[in-house]
């Protein structure tokens, strides 16, 4: 399998991406990793002893975090992100991964790779950690700020297939993000979507409140991109704040420092369970190829996680399964 990596996108590019590729290439020799970017920058980082399953695809432009997404994709046709997307479109790569500009990656998926037949609005999916350690797939996380009920149904179908194909979950439980668990709760969008989801060929378990998302009550949670993006950032912000408060309290006195030293292994395990590095790699579901978004601050460990998830999706035929599901719909 061949995976194109936008080696110039993200806060720690290109060094973190090169390091992750070297580690992944050694662990998975059946995977060819294509670093897309400026060869003069990438080659020195690879050195002379790079494994044979790593190569460089030249791309001399970079889409930055401040670039306007659609304009950047249309004008910077030789950017690392667009070139990686074009490789997926032309069959030169089975998937692409980028930790760069999220909006530009959405535009690359739509304008360069193209939508799957039958899909109205692709959705960005992300895995949240849960108490049962299985995680929960949430979509849409911001690809589309507005949605119709039928879009939420498509997200539910795609999310259910993803958890089945990539994570091996039989009959994934699908929930609808809402302000209450009763069927009549919510706005016009969620109330209309609820009835349609009940009729869809999925294991729909009803409404889920945001306070229960991390409890592991379902395997897939569906929402519009506006609500989903707020939920994502609220969870990240809450986790960061809690850890900051703990750090302050546990270093405030000599007694608390002694207690903290004794509890350090437990705190480390909690931190690891909440570490986004372990869940990195959000697929843009609904485009005609595997397009995966890495967290903007991805380090080498996080990028390797994204590579691992991408390999699994390719190996289990995710895109073919989605195409079969929506053909003729």
From TrEMBL:
GO CC annotation: cytoplasm
Example GO molecular function: phosphate:acyl-[acyl carrier protein] acyltransferase activity
UniProt enzyme class: transferase
InterPro entries associated with the record: FA_synthesis (IPR003664), Phospholipid_synth_PlsX-like (IPR012281)
The keyword Ribonucleoprotein appears for this protein: no
Domain of life: Bacteria
Pathway this chain belongs to: Lipid metabolism; phospholipid metabolism
Single Gene Ontology BP annotation: fatty acid biosynthetic process
Entries under Pfam families matching the protein: FA_synthesis
Keywords for the protein's UniProt record, in alphabetical order: Acyltransferase, Cytoplasm, Lipid biosynthesis, Lipid metabolism, Phospholipid biosynthesis, Phospholipid metabolism, Transferase
Catalysed reactions, as listed in the record: a fatty acyl-[ACP] + phosphate = an acyl phosphate + holo-[ACP]
Subcellular location: Cytoplasm
Chief location bin: cytoplasm
Catalytic activity, EC: 2.3.1.274
Assembly behavior: Homodimer. Probably interacts with PlsY.
Membership in a protein family: Belongs to the PlsX family.
Function: Catalyzes the reversible formation of acyl-phosphate (acyl-PO(4)) from acyl-[acyl-carrier-protein] (acyl-ACP). This enzyme utilizes acyl-ACP as fatty acyl donor, but not acyl-CoA.
Protein name: Phosphate acyltransferase
UniProt organism field: Cohnella lupini
């Amino acid at each position: 399998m061949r995976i194109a990596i936008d080696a110039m996108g993200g806060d720690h590019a290109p060094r973190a991406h090169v390091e992750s590729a070297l580690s992944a290439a050694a662990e998975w020799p059946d995977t060819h990793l294509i670093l897309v970017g400026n060869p003069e920058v990438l080659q020195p980082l690879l050195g002379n002893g790079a494994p044979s399953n790593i190569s460089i695809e030249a791309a001399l432009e970079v889409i930055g975090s401040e670039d306007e997404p659609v304009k950047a994709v249309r004008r910077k046709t030789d950017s690392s992100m667009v070139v990686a997307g074009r490789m997926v479109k032309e069959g030169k790569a089975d998937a692409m991964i980028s930790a760069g500009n999220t909006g530009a990656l959405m535009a690359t998926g739509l304008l360069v790779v193209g939508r799957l037949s039958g899909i109205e609005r692709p959705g960005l999916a992300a895995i949240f950690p849960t108490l049962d350690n299985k995680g929960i797939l949430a979509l849409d996380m911001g690809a589309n700020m507005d949605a119709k009920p039928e879009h939420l149904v498509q997200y539910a179908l795609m999310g259910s297939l993803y958890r089945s194909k990539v994570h091996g979950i039989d009959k994934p439980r699908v929930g609808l993000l809402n302000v209450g668990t009763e069927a009549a709760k919510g706005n016009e969008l969620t109330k209309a979507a609820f009835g349609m989801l009940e009729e869809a060929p999925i294991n729909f378990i009803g409404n889920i409140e945001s306070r229960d998302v991390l409890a592991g009550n379902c395997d897939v949670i569906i929402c519009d991109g506006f609500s989903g993006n707020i939920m994502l950032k609220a969870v990240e912000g809450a986790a960061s704040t809690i850890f900051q408060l703990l750090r302050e309290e546990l270093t405030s006195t000599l007694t608390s420092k002694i207690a903290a030293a004794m509890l350090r292994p437990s705190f480390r395990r909690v931190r690891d369970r909440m570490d986004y590095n372990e869940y990195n790699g959000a697929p843009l579901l609904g485009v005609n190829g595997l397009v995966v978004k890495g967290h903007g601050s991805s380090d080498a460990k996080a990028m390797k996680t994204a590579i691992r998830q991408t390999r699994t999706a390719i190996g289990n035929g995710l895109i073919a399964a989605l195409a079969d599901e929506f053909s003729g719909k």
